[in-house]
């Protein structure tokens, strides 16, 4: 159909308008669609960004509707350790979840969360709850509040992973509790401290004091002391303690000072310590160092006394401090090692001292001196004292003692042992000589120890007793030895004497001697002597041969004694026999001299007078011989009278003067006036005077001098008779007082004299309790001194 449709213009206009409107609407729709598409894409991008932001958030939200259903992000299952997101609160505890074998919150937490959600729905208030995942240490924090109307009814809950926070809180709680406990302990320690402690606040006022502080300042309580600001240290204005605390706070360093403090009415020395604590103020404490100061003073005095003592020692002493520097040395140390005091005053180090000692060649030779020095340096760290012996050039021996000190120092002692070493060597030589001497002695020697054991012996000792080597090797005891040697003695019962002798010497420390006979006929003199070391020396001397000689000599002595008695009796009898003819001769001579036989010629009268003089001299000699014989026999008779010595000596001098003048001689007399009396025999005392004077006159040549001096005191009278004669030599002096007469000299006329006067004089002097002494030298004369007591005991009978 090709027929064209023709439209009415109005219709066409309407159609055109409709088409235009449609096109415009279409265009507008397209534009609006495009705009909406842009907005949708923009919003999608925003939602995507917000989803990503929500996915990266440290929390997971979920909504719990009024019906208890949960709308949640899939991450909630991962957070709870569940395989699928939970649909209800019970599912969060793993209840009703298929395939659940762990994870989820605890049932108790689930019930509590459900209760919180129900309360939020009803009351519209937020809540927080800590949830712990079962089987793990993870902790979640649930924060919930009613959901906004735009989302719908129910509750929005945000889960936060609070594990690290809980751990941090637990750790901080534990640390806080530990700090609290430490603070309580510290406060308890401060309170229990036996010395004052305190704390000052930032204003340096007292903020805390302990009980010791309160007691020290005699306060009533800590609060009262703090309130009143009672200071421990005496101060007129109270600023001195604060000043020291201020110095500590400003310097940031601990300040210590020693001050006197009055405690309990007593003055004590305290060490005050201020410890800065930054912005928290200053702490302080005080120690009573009164005893410490006294101890320090005593220690100082002890060290001074010790060093004075070291200075007086003959051993060298050197002391090194903990830094190994020399702090003291005495004079012997300087002398031992040839060190100068000026150099030692610089307190040299230990190694330098050793090096200087080596330079002076006063150290032992060492090939490796550094190693040797390092070994000696180890003395400082030794536990016990170290002792060494040094042999230094020149042959000197030193004993070195290194004593480590508690403070880390070292004290050295150097003792010169050269003399001891020499003595030890000499002792060893002496011991060898002694051993050799013992073996070669003729005597038998045995030394018994204090316990009675035979300690040392020689071959002679072993042979005498017949002891075996086995017996001697076990240091035979004297008890056992007695049993072995009893058969060797002539009298076996006396064997116990050996044990007694050893005991007396070792225990009683007494010496004993004696003689013993052996069964084989030998005789021994024994001696047991205590030794200084507590041992006993037992010696045996074989006197078998000498015993025979002794017996022969004893027989001869007995014969001589008997002959002497016969001689004495013969001389006494002869003296009495001689008196009879002498008396007859004297009588007839006196008759002839008296003219009874008629007038005699002159020559006959001279002969008669010579006969009378000879008879008188012979009678005097006979009397002297008789007296001498009786004195030797102990039978000299003496009387006891009071004798005026002045009168007696005057008479004796007068009797001797004619003989002195006839030589001629000079006779000098010096008798103390008022000499007084003496108790004795006047005739015998006169004999003493006569013999002394006659002997001196007889031996003095013409023109010589005889002097007699007599003086006395209350107890004693002293006679001194001296002459200028020829004197005597030693041999003559030795026998001048022999008891028997002898012809020993000649007078000036060449006639020999019988030396009977001085022996008789000695007997008479000793009979009166006195003493006589003679001094003489050839060519210097002779001096006889007699001491006679004024009173003496009975020596004879009248």
UniProtKB/TrEMBL annotation:
One molecular function GO term is: phosphorelay sensor kinase activity
Q: What is this protein called?
A: histidine kinase
| Record's catalysed reaction(s) | ATP + protein L-histidine = ADP + protein N-phospho-L-histidine
Organism this protein belongs to: Rhizorhabdus histidinilytica
Answer whether the UniProt record assigns the keyword Repeat to this protein. Answer: no
Q: Which Gene3D superfamilies match?
A: 1.10.287.130, Histidine kinase-like ATPase, C-terminal domain (3.30.565.10), PAS domain (3.30.450.20)
The first-level EC class reads: transferase
Enumerate the spans annotated as Histidine kinase domain: 573-792
